[in-house]
Write a structure and sequence with these properties.
By secondary structure, this protein is mainly alpha-helical. The chain contains 4 helices and no strands. The chain is elongated, with a radius of gyration of 15 Å.
């Protein structure tokens, strides 16, 4: 399972590397509101991914990861709807988030199917 955790962490970092230049292009008035909310949520997702990797009981952390990923999807969609993110950049970013969501789902399945001690 550690390999899957590492892949999830790598995917979250890749998403963040894509997102920071996109956020830098936000209008100045939004850099300390919506852009900051998106950065904070990405940081939270990164922290939860690291926490999940290190914890023995992972279910609650995975639930928080799933919620945070969904919150991030909505923030990014809001950025697109407001015209701060181009449709192409939105599509690429959304693909990252969908893939992270699938990885979280896979981790959920593996935690739920693992035998209880």
């Amino acid at each position: 399972m550690a390999t899957q955790d590492f892949k999830t962490l790598t995917k979250v970092k890749d998403m963040m590397l894509y997102a920071y230049p996109v956020l830098a292009q936000f209008p100045k008035a939004e850099k300390f509101s919506l852009a900051q909310d998106i950065r904070r949520t990405m940081d939270e997702l990164l922290e939860l991914t690291i926490t999940e990797d290190k914890k023995y009981t992972k279910k609650t952390t995975l639930e928080m990861m799933d919620i945070t990923n969904e919150k991030l999807k909505h923030y990014v969609q809001l950025g697109k709807d407001l015209g701060f993110i181009s449709f192409h950049k939105y599509e690429v970013w959304e693909k990252h988030l969908v893939e992270i969501g699938k990885m979280i789902g896979g981790l959920f399945k593996s935690v739920n199917s693992s035998p209880k001690s």
